[in-house]
Each structure stands twice: as C-alpha cells, then as structure tokens.
Design goal:
The protein is α+β, with helices and mostly antiparallel strands. The chain folds into two domains: 64-246, YerB-like (YerB-like fold); 272-398, YerB-like fold, CATH 3.50.90.10. The chain has helices at 3-27, 76-82, 145-152, 173-179, 190-193, 220-229, and strands at 29-35, 41-48, 63-66, 73-75, 88-93, 109-116, 119-126, 136-137, 158-161, 187-189, 199-201, 216-219, 239-241, 244-246, 272-275, 286-291, 296-301, 304-305, 307-308, 313-314, 316-317, 319-325, 327-328, 338-339, 343-351, 354-362, 370-372, 386-392, 397-398. The longest helix has 25 residues, at 3-27. It is globular. The protein starts with a helix and ends with a strand.
Length: 399
C-alpha cells in the first residue's frame, strides 16, 4: 500500500472512531458483554439502557382495576395489557456488591430468604406494575427449591433465573424444575436462553466495580417476548407432564388471591420493625420505618437505605409479612438450605402501622400461600407492594 493510501486510511480510522464515540456519548449507552451458555465471553455490544415507555395512561382514566396479586388499583389500559400475560417470578440477588438492585420497587410481591452462607436473595413477582414501561431487572441470580415452591402458588408463572442449585438431594432446584415439567416451558433459565434476553452489564452501577456474578441484566419485555414465542401467554399451552397432557387454561383460572382493605384504615403506632436472618450478619439485617403520611414501610438493610437503581428511590412496601418456618441446613458443601414451604406456621403481618399475629398456610407445592387471623378468617391486606421475609421459627422480630 502506498504512503498516501496509508495516511488516508489512518485519517478515516480516526474520524470513524471520533464519530462513534460521540454517538455513544449522546445516546448514553452502556457496555454490555454477552456470554455463551457455558459462561464464555462471546461479544461486546453497546445497547441503550433507557426504559421503554409502553403505555400512555390518560390522567382522566380511572384507576379502579385491582391487580389480582396485591390489590393495587390500576387503569383499564394496564389491565388490558396484563391480561394477555402471566406473572414473572424473578430471582434477584442481594450481596452488598450487587446493590442497589434494579426493579424491586416495581414488583407486586417480593419473597426474601437466605440462599446460602446467611446471604439473602429475593424473588420478585412482576405483573401489574410493569405494564407501563419496560422495566430493567438486575442482578439476576440462581434458582433455589423453596422459591420454586412459592412461585408454584401462582399457577405456573414464568420462573426467571441464571442456573441454580443442582447437587443431588432435596436442594436440587434444577432437577425439580425438570420433574415439574417447567424446563423449556415456563422456566426461563439464562443458561438456555442467553443473549440478547440476558446481558452482562459491568457498568450497571455507575462508578462501582462489579464482579461478573453481579452483572446479569434483563427486562420485563424481553422475558415476556421469550414466553410469547413459547406460547406461554396468559394461557398455558398444551404440554406433557409425565403421562398427563395439560394446558389450555388461563393462569388466573382457579387463582383466588388475597383479600384487601377498602376504605380508610386506622393508623397504628408501630413505627419501626427490625429483624435479622441466619447467622445474624449485619449486612442482611433489615429495618422498616413506617410513614403514616404515605401509609408505607420504608426499607433499609445493612444500615443503609434500600434504594432501587431504576429511580434512585427508597423501596417502600404497603405490607411487610414476616413468615416463620423450619430452617434446615447447611445440607451440602455448597451450604444450601431448605425452608419449610407447606403446612402451617406463624406469621406477623405489619400494615397500617399495626402488628397482627397471623397464621400462614400452604396445602401443597402448587397451592396458594394464605394468611389468616386469630379467628381463622382470611386476613385482608393493604393494597400495594407486599414484602414477605422468611425467617426461622427461632428468629426474633423487634417492633
């Protein structure tokens, strides 16, 4: 190549680089690294991270449609959208290095329990509150058997995770997903779905270095797109489970759900709640501060406000439920645990500034999780985000 040609090629390269840099700076993109199913890095791409607006809701539109999961009231436009789908049950991790998480404020229900080594993990149930905007969810983490049991009470939701516990024995979550007929169906495992539904974003928390295990990101719309391609809409497709052919029903068929308060609730005087999990690790100690003005419980953990990266606001729940049950383990070299998910047990329900002793019950794996008062009647909850923390029967709750 002539000297003149080399000079022209160099100038073209520099100009292209400057244009590309300027374009990505304007778009506010994030470097995202995708992986193969085995975890190998395969390509880097630049993808916009803005949440996509999906529905335009008129300020005049009534919000009188109750979410079947937590009773929150929404518009008919939002209900028309969620009725074509089924809930997402998404595993989200909670190590300090993974914080802040994305999306928890937009869950309808959140389950919280220890995954291993005293480290808690969340399973957010996303359905009604994420119809208006495509919502970022992160960081996604692996499956555990007891979360699958709780998810099963929502009539075959879309269970979202990155791999899972797979050692032989009662904690084999991946084996159980196969036994239940979820694999390749309502089970959305990053190991089998991969890019672009799931991406690794090393810059998901600006200014914070994040190890690979804390970087897996997806969005609600990407997950529902995978489900639609598999024909898992609000309707369950026909499929074989063992020797039985099942399917064709709307997921809400037979689903009862919880009761919810109507009218103005009296406000109690319990303003602070605190508890710790297995091992009493202060990083996972939880505090809730009741705000009477908003009738909400503001969450802190590890001595800091628990915020959502999507909006930088503190997580606020309308109901905080402490469910106490049997805790077994560690049961293997991976320190996996088992929590009792069926039968009955004690619970404390915090709502409207009050603490209400209750009983939880779940007849079997696929039955709904129910709460009753001291008279055995269904306990009504406040409409809005319901947070369920699962503790051992020996744990102490201070309020």
């Amino acid at each position: 190549m002539s000297k003149k040609s080399l000079i022209l090629a160099f100038i073209f390269y520099v100009a292209s680089a400057l244009v590309s840099f300027g374009a990505f700076s304007v778009l506010g993109t994030t470097q995202i690294l995708s992986l193969t199913d085995s975890g190998d890095e395969i390509e880097a791409s630049d993808e916009e991270t803005d949440l996509g607006q999906l529905l335009q809701i008129s300020p005049q539109e009534l919000r009188d449609q109750a979410c079947p999961l937590n009773g929150q009231l929404y518009s008919l436009t939002e209900k028309s959208a969620w009725e074509k789908r089924r809930p997402l049950a998404v595993m989200i991790e909670n190590t300090p290095d993974a914080r802040p998480q994305s999306g928890l404020s937009d869950a309808d229900i959140v389950f919280e329990a220890v995954a291993e080594y005293g480290i808690t993990r969340f399973m957010g149930i996303f359905y009604c509150d994420v119809q208006v905007a495509d919502t970022t969810l992160a960081p996604i983490r692996s499956a555990r058997s007891y979360y699958i049991d709780w998810a099963s009470g929502f009539n075959l939701p879309l269970y979202v995770h990155v791999g899972g516990a797979n050692l032989p024995g009662p904690t084999d979550a991946l084996g159980q997903l196969g036994q239940y007929g979820w694999n390749g169906q309502n089970d959305i495992n990053q190991f089998s779905v991969g890019f672009p539904t799931f991406v690794r974003d090393y810059n998901r928390v600006p200014g914070k270095e994040i190890d690979t295990e804390h970087t897996m990101v997806t969005t609600t719309e990407k997950l529902w797109t995978v489900a639609a391609k598999r024909l898992w809409t609000n309707l369950t497709p026909a499929r074989n489970v063992g020797k039985t052919v099942t399917g064709g029903k709307d997921w809400k068929e037979g689903y009862i759900g919880w009761a919810f308060d109507d009218g103005q609730a009296s406000k109690g005087a319990i303003s602070a709640i605190s508890y710790s999990f297995m091992g009493q690790d202060p990083n996972y100690a939880v505090q809730w501060a009741y705000d009477a003005a908003s009738n909400g419980y503001q969450r802190s953990q590890g001595g800091a406000l628990h915020t959502d990266l999507n909006d930088d606001k503190q997580v606020v729940a309308k109901n905080v439920i402490v469910l106490q049950t049997s805790e077994k383990g560690p049961l293997n070299e991976a320190k996996h645990l088992l929590y009792g998910t069926t039968g009955t047990g004690k619970a404390l329900v915090f709502k409207n500034g009050e603490a209400i002793p209750a009983t939880w019950s779940k007849k079997d794996r696929t039955a709904e999780l129910l709460f009753t008062d001291s008279k055995g009647k269904a306990l009504s909850l406040t409409r809005g985000l319901t947070w369920i923390s699962v503790l051992s029967t020996t744990a102490t709750v201070t309020y």
